[in-house]
Structures are given as structure tokens and as C-alpha cells.
Amino acid sequence: MEGFKSLARVDDALRLLLAHTTHRPRPIEVDIEDSLNLISAEDVIAQSDFPPFDRSAVDGYAVRSSDTLGASLLSPVELRIVGEVEAGTDPSSLKPLGEGEAYTIYTGAPLPPGADAVVMAEDAFREGDVVKVQRQVARYQNVSRKGEDFQAGKPVIRRGERVKPWHIAALASLNVRKVKVYRLRVAVLSTGSEVVELSDPRAGSPGTIINSTKPLLKSLLRADGYEPLDLGTVPDDVGLIANKLSTGLREADAVITTGGTSIGAYDVVPEAVRRLGKVLFNGVRMRPGKPTGAGVVDGKPVFMLSGFPVAGLAGYMAFVRPTLLHMTSSREEPLPRVKGIITRRVANIAGVRTYLRVKVRATGKGYEVEPLAITASGVLSTLTEANGLLIIPEDVEGYDEGDEVEVVLISPPEGL
pTM here? Predict the structure, then answer.
């Protein structure tokens, strides 16, 4: 069995992986309400202005602004009410507004021809067919202009952008019913004769390990807008693993394996990948996650992650997430970061990138960063406690208590 002949630097390994990942998923067309959190496969361009006409932003009275000159509480201007405009009214059905006239108008209703402003209801009072305006309004005051939200020919969402709820609302307002997106399918395979699924009757029996890494990875994939395909768990057998990998590569855009990547006699995943394609690296200068590796088969990536959950998370963030984004030319924004003061000293190993779980607290003076653990790749309790990751670069020996550090947030800080 081959061991770690050399350990790759994280950045070098990722560049190599991206260069060899040539597979691109096919776009699919879905209803806009089914597109949430997926990656847009096209620029969606507004075909018309929105709003399609000048409309009232408030309840009140549509007027000619020039008719309100000098209006005040002590000297109101009287205008004759000639009609009422509700949201949904066809603007072409409205009689043009003449001098000294006003329309009662409601929020979202089109501005009548001739009107160029709206007096808020609280700035006027009505007596029969007359409204007394108590405040002067400027031209287009309290009016949402035509095309103010979206102009014809301008993009609503760009290719590679993740669809958010507000994108869906915008598309609906423009009468766009379907959108082309990428729905990446990622197969997940666990290895190890001792590993059992939670549903397995043997779960909890002596000598077995309940698989917690696969549920973690499947949840991460779903949260990122990808579709996980569960390939199950197979024993430490090169042939069985290679067969499962073939299935996953046929049915998905990428494959993640957990376990079977270290230097032990039962770490057989790299050998299975070699039977199908090419191993790009096996072993990375990172902790946790030193056994992380990756390969490609016909341009599709195979991520070989540790079977320990914390190390699996580090491998996902370092390699899986950026590679999947690369496959869809995504414009994904990075996770939020904050700067804070570290509460105790942490050391790093020269030449190793460390992913340190931390707890970030908001204080009256800023943020406080409490280190939870550096080692212990399988300690799930540090993940449930952590709300951030302190990524210590290879060329940094560590941080002293009181140093300012930058943390990647994975959930909101405490105390907010």
C-alpha cells in the first residue's frame, strides 16, 4: 500500500484539482419557486421596466405638484376630487388630471395622466368632493418611477449567482416563470468494515462505529444547494469501492468518499480511484484533515475525505466547496468574517494550515474569540459549540493571547 510520499500544500492541491476538473454540469430549467439556493446557468435580463408605470408609493391624493405651491397647515390649497385610482387600474382608462384637480389614490396604483406627485393622506383632509392640501409636494414626491426597480435590458440575476428569495420575487414581478439553473448531484460513499449506518440494526454494537461523517457531508451539500446521492457504506475492499465509485460517477457530477485514505493497510480508496482515473494528491499539509486527497475520472472530481467528522468538514471547506463552485462558474460570496481578540495562546505547526474551531462572542468592545480545539479530528462536541473557524496559515507559528485574529463565521456570534 502506498503511504504519504509527500504532503501537498492546501493552495497548491486546490489549484491542481481545479485545473483537472473539466466536467461541467448540464443546466436544467425549473419553475422559479424551485430554484432557491441553486446556481443560475444564465443571465436573466429584464424584458420590461418594473414598475411598468409611475405609481403611488403611499395612500393619498394624486396631484399636479404645481397646484400645491404654498400649501400649509394654516393656508391649505383646495383641489376638486375627480375620481379614485386603485392598484390594478389600467392607466389608459384614466381621465387626464386638470388644473385644480386631484384623484384619491392608493399605494401601488398608477399615477393618472397629468399628475406628477402624491400628497400623503395625513397631509390633507377631505370635505365632500374637495381635498384640502396642507403640505406642498415636489415633483415625483411619493411616486415610484417607471423602471425604478428594474429597467428593461438590465440583469436581474447573473450566470453563476446563487438564487436567493429576493431573486425569485424579482423574477415573479417581471413575469418570469422559469429559469435555467445548475443542480449538481454529488454522490457520497463511506468505507470501512467497522462503519455502520444509523439505520443498521448493528448500530451501537461493540466494534462498530456509527457513521456521523456522511450525514454531516450530506447536510453541508444540501445547505449549499446541491443534491446528495447516498451510495451507502462498503467494506475495505478495492474492487467493491471501485464499483461504487463507477456508479457514483455515472449518476452524479462529483463523488465524495469518507474513510480509507490514511497510510494504514485498510486505506484502499486511493487505489480504487487509480483503477478508474488519476489520483492528484493523497495527503495535505492541513489539520485536521491530513489524509485528505482528491482525484479525477473523466474530468469529474473524486474527493477523498477523512472518516472523522471534524476532519471531513475541514476537507469539505478546503476542497469540496470551492471545486463545486468552480464547476458552475459561481459568483458565490465568501462566508462572513469578523476580527476579534483571541482569549488564549494557540500554536501552529510550521508549514501546516490549521482549521481551528472557535467560539466567537460579541462584547461591548468588539468580538472575543475562544479556541475550542486544534487536534481531535473526530470530536463532534467542538462543532456543536463552535460558531467560527480560525484558519491559521502555513507561515504563521500561532497566536498569543490578546492578538487580533480574523475568523470565518459558520453561524452568528454569541451575544448579538
Answer: 0.82
Domain range for residue 240?
Answer: 10-25+184-327
- pLDDT tens for 29-55 read 999 999 999 999 999 999 999 899 999
- Domain containing 137 — which CATH number? 2.170.190.11
Residue 136 shares a structural domain with residue 188: no
Same domain, 249 and 219: yes
Considering 259-263, 332-336, 391-395, the range whose residues carry the highest mean pLDDT is 391-395
154 falls within a domain: no
Of 272, 303, 327, the last residue of a domain is 327
pLDDT at 2 over 50: no
HEC-encoded secondary structure of the chain: CCCCCCCECHHHHHHHHHHHCCCCCCCEEEEHHHCCCCEECCCEECCCCECCCCEECCCEEEECHHHHCCCCCCCCEEEEEEEEECCCCCHHHCCCCCCCEEEEECCCCECCCCCCEEEEHHHEEEECCEEEECCCCCCCCCEECCCCCECCCCEEECCCCECCHHHHHHHHHCCCCEEEEECCEEEEEEECCCEECCCCCCCCCCCCEECCHHHHHHHHHHHCCCEEEEEEEECCCHHHHHHHHHHHHHHCCEEEEECCCCCCCCCCHHHHHHHHCEEEEECECEECCCCCEEEEECCEEEEEECCCHHHHHHHHHHHHHHHHHHHCCCCCCCCCEEEEEECCCEECCCCCEEEEEEEEEEECCEEEEEEEECCCCCCHHHHHHCCEEEEECCCCCEECCCCEEEEEECCCCECC
User: Is 237 a residue whose pLDDT tops 80?
Assistant: yes
Q: Are residues 272 and 254 in the same domain?
A: yes
Q: What is the predicted pLDDT for the residue at 376? A: 54
pLDDT tens, 276-329?
A: 999 999 999 999 999 999 999 999 999 999 988 999 999 999 999 999 999 999
Residues 318 and 265 in one domain: yes
Give, in degrees to the nearest 5, the angle at Cα 148 between 144 and 149.
110
Cell of 54: 409611475
**How many domains is the chain built from?**
4
Residues 43 and 110 in one domain: no
Does 332 reside within a domain?
Answer: no
| Range in 157-171, 202-216, 399-413 with the lowest mean pLDDT | 202-216
